[in-house]
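By convention, the token line describes the chain's fold. To illustrate:
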Amino acid sequence: MQVINIHKRIINQPKTKVSSLMKTLATREDRMWPKDNWPAMKFKKGLEVGEQGGHGMIRYSIKGYKEGEYITFEFLKPKRFNGIHKFEIRALNEDITEVKHSIKMKTDGLIATFKWILVIRWLHGALIENAFDTIENNFVATKKFTTWSSWVCLWRFLLRPSK
């Protein structure tokens, strides 16, 4: 199954301020990823092309990186998820920036397709909206948090790590 999944958020800040957050991604000082509510994004050597890492059960390698502009990841796991996901930061004008996350992939086989349709698509959507909240919360006094659907809450409950 061909998958194109795009999320965008307008941030009322200049691109320089928003893009400075990208270099903190996957670091201890991460100001972009919603690590308080989702598995942290981790890479041993940081944001370097070829580096492998991921978050939770999702694994990928860094395929392309231009500081302050974009970072492209190629899926390694789940198996049969063939393609990329990408964060992009683009100035719309001097004071307004668009943050975009896109997935362009193909699922191979019924199991991978059902994983995407029933589980990962929903969790991914909630995670990305929470990431956009995290980005925006760097610049606002009243903090945002995009609430999760009942379906997302159910999957988070079912997939929570056992203690």
Remarks:
- The CA atoms of residues 27 and 75 lie 20 Å apart.
- The chain has a mean pLDDT of 96.
- Residues 2-158 form a domain with the Alpha-D-Glucose-1,6-Bisphosphate; Chain A, domain 4 fold (CATH 3.30.530.20).
